[in-house]
Amino acid sequence: MSRKIHIFDTTLRDGEQSPGFSMSQGQKLRVARALADLKVDIIEAGFPAASPGDFNAVQAIASEIQGPVIAALCRTIPSDIERTILALEPAQKSRIHTFIATSPIHRREKLNMSREQVLRHAVNGVKMAAEACTDVEFSAEDGIRTEREYLADILQAVIEAGATTVNIPDTVGYSTPSEMYDLFRWLNKTVPGIENVRVSTHCHDDLGLAVANSLAAVEGGATQIECALNGIGERAGNCALEEVVMALRTRADHYDIEIGIETERLMAASHLLAAVTGNFVPRNKAIVGENAFAHEAGIHQHGMLASRDTYEIMKPEDVGLKGSQLILGKHSGRHAVVDRAKHMGYDLEEGEVEAIMERFKALADVKKRVFDSDLEAIITGYETGTIGPWSLNWLSVVSAVNGETEPSASLTLAHEDGTTSTHTGDGDGPVDAMVEALELVTETKIKVLSLAMRSISLGEDAQGEASMRATVDGVEYSGHGLSTDIVAACAAALLEIINRATRSAAQIKQSDAA
Ligand code: KIV
Ligand code: ZN
Questions:
Q1: Percent of the chain scoring above 90 in pLDDT
Q2: Is 390-513 a domain of CATH 2.40.30.160?
Q3: What is the DSSP letter of 407?
């Protein structure tokens, strides 16, 4: 009989904590819903002791998401564990994931603790967690660079203290597949009691080996893989969920493993995460990149026409890729849109349908043909522009190449308090000019750090997507905008950034007053 491997997703914890991938609570909830639809076994929702925002997001996910186990991370210190117990309280199924670094370099340089002290912390943390929760995971941070015998002792001790999963992370992405295989086999043979718990791998991608190392750990006896959508995570990222899952599925003949993932939902989940965080997936990315199933070279096309198997080892449909279709128009109603979205892998929540319909109707009015990719853009970006006090009433932009005039932008913003404000800015180009006009309206200092634009649907009136990072009064935010006019998409991205900044400034004021 095939071995069952649990898929533990850490997109919302290890992924979200890395630079450029932070998400609001609403965005985390949307990603958590997509992960539940994918049928991952465990969702690591965050690190409750890290900040009040993280605590609230874990609590919200624990309250709403049913199906997967909801896990949250904490150090082995009592105050961290208490916060985690509280945040996970509403969950139907919860897991406390506690960790401490075990390698010599971390013990010496970071913790300033002896081996015995680290072991004592690990055991006490696991005992405390196990009193509150029947599902406890222990991670030996930097486990790969820990002395083997000592690692075995710690794992044995935490299993005796109540851990039900033990995780041996390659925290710094240093290991190689043969080392991983050997270590997991050795631990499985050596540690008393390990046969009664789940054994987990958590690999980082610093040398581009995270997926290969995770698969090698599975061959060595691991029964849980920790991974993240699009491979996001600290530094070079974590093992990419879509890659490791499709490797196990496509090479079932080799691995003989059972996993419960609905792979047809991979593309939708990956696109959602990219849109929410404003980070495009590279074209050539395995499984979910735009080119992953494209065949350009004549010789390849010839082979594909003769038989798909000549160059295709997976069916595009297996990962949720369907040819872009002409679908709906301005007469299409709510039922048709919800039904089409479901077919594309998006189960829309009652509360979001209205906002999506509003955008769909507006788009159908200006766009002659509406494709699946347009609908997907609306669904993944529907939060844009709806998160703060400012909205754009009017915009006029002048661009200039070798001309007499300077690039300039005039705009009117409406505030939720009922006032409007109009200003004109100029600059090196239209985006620079828009930034100046927005600074004047909102009385802030904005510095654009990066701007990426692309076309995301079909036809001469295709939608353009702008993804931007900028600082507002020195604090970094990301924004995302969609429009059939790419300059308007940039304005929407900038406005999202300003709205986020205004909202978080208001939150800081509120908590200072409390
Ligand atoms: O990389 C790592 O070691 C981690 C642990 C906290 C699980 O993320
Ligand atoms: Zn990690």
A1: 63
A2: no
A3: P
Task: Convert the pLDDT of each residue in 195-211 to its tens digit.
Answer: 999 999 999 999 999 99
| Predicted model pTM | 0.86
CATH superfamily of 3-277: Aldolase class I (3.20.20.70)
Residue 54 Cβ < 6 Å to ligand 1: no
> Taking CA 126 as the corner, what is the angle to CA 120 and CA 127, rounded to the nearest 5 degrees?
90
171 lines ligand 1 (CB under 6 A): yes
pLDDT in tens, 103-134: 999 999 999 999 999 999 999 999 999 999 99
Please list all protein residues whose beta carbon sits less than 5 angstroms from ligand 2, which is an ion. Answer: 14
Q: If you measure from the C-alpha of residue 239 to the centroid of ligand 2, how many angstroms do you get, rounded to a whole number?
A: 10
Give the rounded distance of the alpha carbon of 443 from its chain centre.
Answer: 32
Q: Is-same-fold flag (3-277; 390-513)?
A: no
Condensed to tens digits (0 to 9), the pLDDT of residues 451-497 reads 888 887 666 677 888 888 889 998 888 787 888 888 998 998 899 88
Contact residues for 258 (Cβ-Cβ < 8 A; gap 6+) = 2, 3, 4, 5
Nearest CA residue ID for atom 8, ligand 1: 14
All structural domains of the chain with their residue ranges: 3-277, 324-384, 390-513
